[in-house]
UniProtKB/TrEMBL annotation:
Residue numbers spanned by region Disordered: 264-287
Matching Pfam families: FAA_hydrolase (PF01557), RraA-like (PF03737)
GO MF, one example: hydrolase activity
InterPro entries from the UniProt entry: Fumarylacetoacetase-like_C (IPR011234), Fumarylacetoacetase_C_sf (IPR036663), RraA/RraA-like (IPR005493), RraA/RraA-like_sf (IPR036704)
Protein's recorded name: Fumarylacetoacetate hydrolase family protein
Segment forming the signal sequence: none
Origin species: Microbacterium bandirmense
């Protein structure tokens, strides 16, 4: 087994077998290629994976994996009893040579001694319980196979590294570091701003599209190579086995999955055996509003928009009883819905804590979206506070609409996130609500809101526009605004409103004649 000896200079790939890097597999001793002090993994870094997930972060984010998750090539990994969504992720692993602290992007690659293959396995059944930290769903024994060989990083083009993955011999992933929107050097430089990267530390740099679920009996192979030179890590092989020990509900949270977890674990709704989304499809939601439509809606008042909706037979488009936390605010965006159900102690225990639906919705809101919360019109408790408002603001949300209360009301206003609500209330969520689900049809302030509906709010209130009518309604409202402005000029000139507002045939002819002129 080829091993990098970190006693040597970072640019010198010395080889030895390190007994500290050995694990027993079926009575045989196999060596790991590194003995890191820490393992840092990147959440999302490839264009192909971001397109698959429908979101692209502005900055890299990370999580730690325990050293006990390390495994060597040729080993096995258990899928725990009572779970179904164990997924592989082929990744390029960086091994640090010279310690890195406060290094720039231009110098960062000089601190990388080697690259190799890694499999960042994850159990999506536990993802909702601690997403972000990934302690349980990414930290299991054997969840970080690495190796088998190291590739010297000296003179290596960091944009020319390829990663491929096979399951039972079928190619599932094939991408290169050129397809990353955060470069390998940027990841090293960024991490070095926060703590020292020590010799031997490993950075898992994210996975491209193609990651999917594996089941007991499957054999996963990952290879990292450099096509321009032929250098390769060799194939990192892991066999999935069935675990016998179920999780104990008396000790901690149990595995829990929904269609979102199934979709993201398998890579697509089709692969997961799920029917297509209908109201509306996720891709359509994540694209957001067209900039030109957004500009029209920002110009059109809600009063004019609601008039046009009524002309089209939609009379229940108002989210009633809400006011803006920032006077003079106008919000425009597509709806991302969140539903609370009435408080019940046993349901709050199972759904209120941990990475609940409320937190997941605020973590998943996209740029230009508006989180719309169903709180059944109960203003006697908060439905969000300053931390979640900051999260929404950071992700580029256009605002929040809730028919409940808001905690930390002044702090939320200072953050600058527009919120339309029933007012301030200091109480925590569990007093009246259980966060139940998001991205579903809800009722807010007397109006039905579906994911992807267009939300517009100003000093007159908040309205809901079906997405397919938004352009038509916006154009008609702006045309009506021009007409109303002309009528106002006539009234200011001394004409009576009778026959002018609304215009009779004579006034209509005069208006249209002026318009043509």
């Amino acid at each position: 087994m080829i091993i990098y000896d970190f006693k040597y200079d970072a640019q010198d790939i010395a080889r030895r077998v390190d007994p500290r890097s050995s694990t027993a597999r079926g009575g045989a001793t196999v060596a790991l290629p590194v003995t890191p002090g820490k393992i840092i993994a990147v959440h999302l870094s490839y264009e192909s994976r971001a397109a698959q997930r429908g979101r692209k972060p502005a900055h890299p984010s990370y999580f730690f994996k325990p050293l006990s998750s390390l495994a060597a090539s040729g080993g096995t990994v258990e899928r725990p009893a009572g779970t179904e969504l164990l997924a592989f992720e082929g990744e390029i692993a960086l091994v640090i040579g010279d310690p890195a602290r406060w290094v720039g992007v231009d110098d960062a690659w000089n601190h990388v001694a080697a690259v190799t293959a890694a499999n960042d396995l994850g159990l999506y059944d536990l993802r909702a319980n601690d997403k972000g930290s990934n302690v349980r769903n990414k930290g299991g024994d054997g969840y970080t196979p690495i190796g088998p060989e190291l590739i010297d990083a000296t003179d290596l083009d960091p944009a020319g590294i390829r990663v491929r993955a096979w399951v039972n011999g079928a190619l599932r992933q094939d991408d290169t570091s050129a397809g990353m929107f955060f470069s390998l050097a940027q990841l090293v430089a960024d991490l070095s701003q926060h703590f020292t990267l020590q010799r031997g530390d490993v950075i898992l740099t994210g996975t491209p599209a193609g990651s999917s679920v594996v089941v007991p009996g499957d054999v996963v192979e990952i290879e990292v190579d450099v096509p321009s030179t032929g250098a390769t890590s060799g194939r990192l092989t892991t066999t999935v086995t069935q675990g016998e020990h179920p999780f104990d509900e008396k000790i901690g949270s149990l595995p829990s999955i929904d269609d979102l977890q199934r979709e993201e674990a398998w890579g697509s709704r089709e692969a997961a055996g799920l029917p297509p989304e209908t109201i509306p499809e996720r891709a359509q939601r994540d694209e957001g509003l067209d900039p030109s439509l957004r500009a029209k809606l920002l110009e059109a008042p809600t009063a004019g928009l609601s008039s046009q909706l009524r002309k089209r037979g939609l009379h229940s488009c108002f989210i009633d009883g809400l006011t803006a936390n920032i006077p003079g605010t106008k919000i425009v965006g597509s709806a991302k819905t969140l539903r609370f159900v009435p408080a019940r102690e046993d349901l709050f225990k199972s759904h209120g804590g941990g990475y609940n639906a409320q937190k997941r919705a605020f973590d998943a809101v996209g740029e230009g979206e508006i989180i719309v919360i169903e709180a059944r019109g109960d203003a006697s408790t908060g439905t969000l506070g300053d931390i979640l408002a900051l999260r929404a603001k950071t992700r580029g949300a256009a605002g929040v609409v809730t028919d409940g209360g808001v905690r930390d009301f002044d702090a939320v206003a200072e953050i600058g996130l527009p919120v339309f609500s029933k007012g301030a209330h200091p109480s925590v969520l569990g007093r009246k609500h259980v966060p139940w689900e998001f991205d579903v049809t809800i009722g807010c302030g007397g109006a039905t809101v579906q994911p992807g509906d267009v939300i517009v709010g100003d000093g007159d209130g908040v309205i809901v526009i079906p997405a397919h009518l938004a352009e038509e309604v916006a154009d008609a409202a702006l045309a009506q605004e021009d007409e109303d402005a002309w009528i106002a000029e006539q009234v200011a000139a001394g004409h009576p409103v009778d026959g002018l507002f609304p215009m009779n045939a004579e006034w209509r002819a005069r208006y249209e004649s002026q318009e043509r002129a």
